[in-house]
Write a structure and sequence with these properties.
By secondary structure, the protein is mainly beta. The protein contains ten helices and 44 strands.
Length: 829
């Protein structure tokens, strides 16, 4: 009953709004987009859309003063007395006449510098005025594409029927359109609680939009603004190290306050800085407006051409606060001749500024959805929507929503599936996919010629795989079931191996998942698989270096994982394993055919008859936990979505016990822990840390397989974006241990802080990495590495490479080497 009462009250309050609407143009009749429109001394506000059309809900009937504010144009204040429910008010705005008193331009006495210095000095005071508030929030987001081809690199571009339905014959149109209406509670620097009242996505009846206030907060009173990297604010404490300023003029707003228009230019083009204009109020030195650009290369986002951020603030004479009422974020991006653009519009209204919040106001849940938030009808949106839809947006909603009814019908879905499910004779070799969308089921056969599974190693020779996968899912409750079988055949070894797996996820709230698997496969001694199949194949066939060492594993195991508390994930596994040694069966290579491969024994590389262990079997039980302190999450009706709080580290804990072995000597216990943390250092980059430690018990004579193996690298090829879990020059099994161990990995990426300032080198638009890696185990001298290198290297927009110089030291032996990082290998392998 209470919920019905609140809903009725909401609609009652909406229905008692008076609405002022119209079109805003310049003197020539051209529509003006994103003009701020608000009622004087209130927090009722909106903006015009791209066609200059606006609508403003006014709470009180009677005499109202409506203000129209647009950068570059004179602010207008118009008295209106709406007697009817709706009033049409068209406005023509005049260009602003900026004045600039005659001054002598002296580098030592730049008038803009004095204003910026005052803005910096008053930054904390002005920021504190809006340090905590509640507000209504509206956002509208849209992605568009232009010139999307039907094929790219010979492969069909398939966006799905929902996204592609509004593209014309040239591949141009709206890919995504959504709106969100919410109530937010915020406290600086980053405490937020958001309740989604209504959410709408064009052509999607589920409508859980990601256009949230928590993902759109950009505060120029902070020293940096977070995009893909931290961008320096034009009024940061160290802003004069990055910017030059020019006072281009002054004007007076509707309250007769002087506004200074200041042009912001970067001192160095490659730095993480803005360019454009910031408007500063005289005397209080608060921000009046911001209109700045960020080229993509300054954010290390090469595919983004340019991003524009606009903010406007309004002044309330009652509480003397300048508060942000609108924000627009737009970008252009592209590659391969395809152009993308996006625009997000945000409206903040109905502010309240309490002096404090209760202690339990903020929790780990940052966003929650009201019941049926995605079910609001058109009448609701037409009444409450602050920014009117453009003709293009209205058409997109109508077209996609009408098509949705058809596309959700079983008849349509079955017809589309029938077309895609047609079987061709070549599918026997190349693979076949079958999908029943209406029943949420799919089947995949990888084919007899699955080239993605092909690889080479000295145990199996050329080996290739295939397999079958069945999936069933439920989007509403997050349940899913997957059953798959993989087969692999080694031609030199002449042996077929088969594994199978059953996985069931119970929900998308705590992500409880049960999996059962078993079969026979080849496995690396280091179960972290430090050598990829692709790298090993190239290393063996071209250079005759067979670093991958394998054994035969017959296994059966059951695994259960679940989030047991906020930020705490528990993983339990019980398995039976039978291990058999394997030997090289081939000496084939493309080159160096007179050379010999090393043996498959990682301990005795020149002994081809002795194995690293004896055949044996045992049971293993493992219990692991991952703890993300301060974990934040979004609650949606269809699931819970977690976000790690970057202020805190991630802690990993593990206990492993081997028991019921074929011989007592194979049984042992091991405890382990790891701490992972990224420490942001302002605009000077980020320091990544990964510390690991552990200890074995009763493990004097265990199998070499169960030793703790560390991720070395002898190929001089790096595959990861970051090297926080690898020793770049250490032989793979040279430091394996069945005792205690401690390893540390630290890597600082300057994110351009140093590289942007070095002439010529800054043309690379790269970043500098400095790293340190150390390993300590008993009865052996510590191993250490120092690295320095460049990241974000490549050609044009494709920054796929990294290059590092590495110096290592252990027991008086020093090594030096170069590691080439190829990040695309993460995807290919």
């Amino acid at each position: 009953m209470k919920k019905h009462y609140l809903l009725a009250l909401l609609f009652f309050s909406i229905s008692h709004f008076s609405q002022i609407k119209g079109t805003i143009t310049d003197e020539k009749g051209n529509p003006l987009p994103f003009v701020s429109v608000f009622e004087e001394n209130t927090y009722s506000s909106t903006t015009s859309n791209e066609q200059g059309v606006y609508q403003l809900n006014v709470k009180k009937l009677g005499q109202n003063k409506i203000i129209f504010q647009y950068l570059g144009f004179k602010t207008q204040k118009i008295d209106v007395a709406p007697e009817a429910k709706t009033l049409t008010l068209n406005v023509k705005m005049l260009e602003e006449s900026f004045t600039l008193n005659e001054v002598i331009i002296d580098p030592k006495n730049n008038p803009a510098n004095a204003i910026i210095k005052s803005a910096i000095a008053n930054r904390k005071e002005n920021s504190e005025k809006t340090a905590r508030y509640t507000a209504d929030f509206y956002s509208k987001g849209m992605f568009k594409v232009k010139d999307l081809p039907k094929k790219l690199f010979g492969q069909k571009v398939d966006l799905g029927a929902d996204m592609a339905s509004n593209l014309d014959s040239t591949g141009t149109g709206i890919l995504y359109l959504s709106e969100t209406l919410s109530k937010i509670t915020f406290e600086k620097p980053n405490k937020i609680k958001e309740k989604i009242i209504a959410s709408k996505i064009s052509g999607n009846n589920r409508g859980y939009s990601y256009n949230t206030a928590s993902l759109s907060t950009y505060d120029f009173y902070e020293n940096t603004l977070e995009f893909s990297i931290n961008i320096i604010s034009p009024i940061a404490f160290n802003a004069f190290n990055y910017y030059t300023y020019t006072l281009e003029g002054t004007f007076f707003d509707e309250n007769n306050q002087q506004i200074n228009k200041i042009k912001v230019k970067p001192k160095r083009d490659k730095e993480p800085v803005f360019e454009g204009y910031i408007y500063i109020v005289e005397d209080s030195f608060a921000i009046y407006a911001v209109d700045v650009d960020i080229p993509g290369y300054r954010m290390k986002q090469e595919f983004t051409e340019k991003m524009n951020l606009k903010q406007t603030f309004t002044y309330n004479q009652k509480n003397k606060i300048w508060s942000k009422n609108s924000q627009t974020l737009a970008f252009n991006a592209g590659a391969f001749g395809i152009k993308f653009s996006g625009q997000f519009n945000y409206i903040y209204s109905n502010y309240e500024f309490p002096s404090s919040f209760e202690k339990k106001t903020f929790g780990n849940e940052i966003v929650a959805f009201e019941l049926n938030a995605n079910k609001k009808d058109d009448s609701f949106w037409n009444e409450i929507r602050p920014i009117p839809l453009t003709i293009e947006e209205s058409t997109d909603y109508v077209k996609k929503d009408s098509l949705l009814t058809i596309r959700k019908s079983q008849k349509y879905i079955d017809s589309v599936d029938a077309k895609n499910n047609k079987f061709k004779i070549l599918d026997i070799m190349m693979g076949y996919d079958y999908k029943n969308t209406f029943k949420s089921r799919s089947f995949e056969y990888k084919g007899l010629l699955d080239l993605t599974s092909a690889s080479f190693n000295t145990v199996q020779g050329l080996n290739i795989g295939s397999g079958f996968t069945f999936k069933k899912w439920n989007e509403e409750n997050g349940k899913s079931t997957t059953i798959n079988t993989d087969v692999n055949y080694g031609f030199s070894e002449e042996r077929l191996r088969v594994t199978g797996n059953f996985t069931h996820r119970f929900n998308s709230i705590n992500y409880a998942t049960l999996s059962v698997s078993g079969g026979t496969k080849v496995a690396q001694f280091n179960n972290a698989n430090p050598i990829s199949k692709l790298i090993n194949s190239v290393s063996s066939l071209f250079f005759k270096d067979n670093y991958m060492k394998l054994y035969n594993l017959e296994f059966a195991q059951i695994n259960y994982v679940q989030d047991i508390a906020n930020g705490v994930n528990l993983n339990a596994k019980l398995g039976y394993e039978q291990r058999k040694p394997l030997f090289n069966t081939t000496d084939y290579s493309f080159f160096k055919r007179d050379d010999s491969y090393s043996s498959n024994n990682p301990l005795l590389p020149n002994d081809f008859t002795t194995s690293a262990f004896e055949k044996h079997n045992l049971f293993k039980a493992t219990l692991g936990a991952r703890i993300n302190f301060g974990n934040k999450y979004i609650s949606r009706p269809d699931g819970r979505y977690n976000f790690k709080d970057d202020k805190y580290p991630t802690v990993l804990l593990a206990f492993e016990k081997a028991f019921a072995g074929s011989e007592k000597k194979y049984e042992f216990e091991r405890i382990g822990a790891a701490v992972q943390y990224d420490l942001p250092i302002g605009n000077k980059g980020i320091l990544g840390m990964n510390f690991k430690a552990g200890k074995f018990f009763n493990a004097e004579n265990i199998s070499f397989i169960d030793y703790r193996h560390f991720n070395g690298n002898q190929t001089h090829i790096g595959q990861a974006d970051r090297y926080l879990n690898v020793f770049n020059l250490m032989p793979y099994y040279s430091n394996s241990t069945n005792n205690s161990y401690f390893e540390a990995h630290l890597e600082h990426n300057d994110q351009g802080f140093i590289m942007n300032k070095i002439p010529l080198l800054n043309l690379l638009k790269s970043t500098m990495n400095i790293g340190f890696h150390a390993l300590a185990i008993p009865d052996r001298k510590p191993y250490s590495e120092f690295t320095v290198g460049l990241d974000n290297l490549g050609f044009g927009k494709f920054k796929l490479f990294r290059l590092d110089y590495v110096h290592s030291y252990q027991s008086g032996i020093e090594q030096n080497g170069i590691v080439l990082g190829i990040k695309i290998l993460n995807v290919l392998d």
